[in-house]
Structures are given as structure tokens and as C-alpha cells.
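User: Before I run my own analysis I want an independent prediction to cross-check against. Here's the chain; please return only the C-alpha cells and, at the end, one sentence I can use as a sanity check.
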Amino acid sequence: MSGRTWPRYPLEVRVPASSSSRRLAAMASYFPSHPLLRADDPAAFAPTTAASPLPAPPSADHAPAGSPQDAEMMQWIEALKAWEDVKDRREADRARRSAVAEVRRLGPHGVPAELRALVWQKLLDVDRFRAPGMLDNLLARPPLPIYDQIEKDIGRTYPNHVLFKDPTSPGQLQLANVLKAYAQHNPALGYTQGMNFICGLLLLHMPPEEALCTLVALMETRQFPHQDPDLHHLHAACAVFDSLVARFLPEIHARLATQGFSAVTYLPRWWMSGWEVCPWGCRVRAWDCVVVEGYLAFHKVSLAILACIADHLAQTHESEVLDVLLHPMPRDLLPDCLTREYLKLAALDDAVLAKAQARVEASESSDAASTASTSLVSRWLSGWGRRA
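Assistant: C-alpha cells:
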């Protein structure tokens, strides 16, 4: 892993070389000490325990000229600078609240692909979780029993992507190493189904050592609805989501309820595959929202997806509704459509979500009912694993 030259922009990006090089050079000047941008340094991606302070953003006279993409990148750089300055203040601090509001304003519109790794790491405060030689040190420990399950899931992770398409692809070894290292770092959780897609996504944006640090930060700082071994949280989250569909998308809820489709029939696949049902641009935008808003974004993104495919659902015979939910048309899930529907959900905030969760918890009449629903999720996941 040491000495490897990693692509200087995400593998899915297709931009003119001159534009990409200019923006990347600008980023490197704004964030000179960040490990993801020291690409000309022989130790470019060596982890560091020191914080990477952001320099002041350049004045308009020295801003990269030209395209809307340049302006968008500058907005994110300025938002990161503001966040870096106030992130350690108390939550009620006015400047901190302003910085959070600006990041939340930008998030649903997506992070520029060339800047995504840096934005994610800064918002997740990855520097707190770095340690010298972290990946190699964790992999040097004796193997864990969970390694067998990790190996089984490697080939199911983005099998159509060049980085992961077969056992000889470089990404498969990197993916296995990062997941095994994380299991060593957090043996209480170890590895749960779906973490492979999260880790694979990180590896498409950064080298293995940085992907591990980012995975640790993501799991530590963002709540996931499906990262518990007994699936109880996933069952409860599906029930919460049903109540949110009823409130925010009543027509869709009425249609699905009439035909006997609850969230448990489709939502586990969306979440545990990292929204693999979405085309790539829509999928990474969904993860931009998760990094920005955390657990709330799992529900908001999923509601936005339902809204995007609402017309298709309305025109579909009930015998094919589940197929539309599990295999939506890519044309219905363009990034701008997801953004538009996500922004319509401004009324759904943490307080509304907390009340919905409280109602679900209060309505669970018995452990037997909960166990029955959880068993349904377990059976579905088992079948999905075999089909993948």
C-alpha cells in the first residue's frame, strides 16, 4: 500500500483533464496539509495525527475562474473553512449554527466529485480517528471468525465496477483489508451486512488507509438504521419510515398500503446496499446527505426516492409494484430530481423524526410482534444475500 499512486480524483468522475487539473491544483493550495491532496509527496497518504487547519479562502480576485463548477467548489471550501473555525464550540453558538446551516444548505445539492473525499473527512472530523500505521497494525492481529463472512461479501460489492469486478481487481483486496481492519478496531460490532457497500464507496474516493479512517469516523459519528446484529433497529426504522410516508407522501402511502406493501418489503434493500437501486450520481448524492445530516438523511433520501418514482408507481399494475420499488428506472432517479424532492422535506427535522420514533416505540404492544417483524426482515436479507 505504501508508495502507491492513487487517482487524484474519484474513479467515477469524467471531467476534462484541464478543468480537473486546475481545480485539483486549487484544492491543494487551499488544503496543503491534508493527506488526500499531497499527491506529489512520496508519503502523500501517510496518516497524520495532527489536525489539518484550513487556510483562509482566497479572495474573489484569486478564485479559480470560469465555470459554475468552480463557483460551487469555492462555496464548499468557504463552508469548510467556516465549519473548521467553529466546530468545537457549543451547539448553541451563533457562528456554529450558521456554519451548520450553510453546510446543510449545500448538502442536498451534492458535493463536487473532486472535493467529496475532503468534504466528507472534514465534516466527519476524521483527524480525530487517525493513528500512524493504523491499517497495517490492525491487519497484523490474529484473524477473527467474522473474516469468513467478509470474504463472502467481497464479490457482491459493486461487481460491475472495474475496481471490484473480479478477484484479481485491486479493489477486492483493498476492500477485504479495510473491512477486516475495521472488525479488529471495533470487535463489538465487527462486521454487519451492508458495511461492504459503504467501504467500497469510500475506496472509490480515497486510498485504503484513508478509507479505514473515514469508515471509523462514519460509524462513530453517524447513526445507521441497520448496523445492529439482531436487526431490531432496522425493524423499528421501517415502522418509523411507514409513518413518515403516511405524513409526507400520503398518496403513495395509500397506494402501497392498499396493495399490502410496507417499508419492510423494500427499505432494507435500499439501506443495506447503500442505495444500490439508484444510479451512481443519485447514490453518491444520497451519501452526501448522510454525511451532512446523519440518521435523518436515511429517511429523507428514501422519501425523496419514493417521490421521484411516484408517477411510475401510479402507472404500474399491483403485481409489478414491488419490482418498481426494488428496481426503479434510472431515468426516474436523476440527481437533480433527488435534490428537488429532498428539499421539499424541509419540515422533516430531527424533532419530527424523534416524535415518530417515540410513537412507534409506544405502539409496539409485545415482544412477540416485534420478533415476528424482525424475522421477516431476516428472511428477506437471507434471500437477498443469495441473490446478490
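Sanity check: The CA atoms of residues 236 and 360 lie 7 Å apart.
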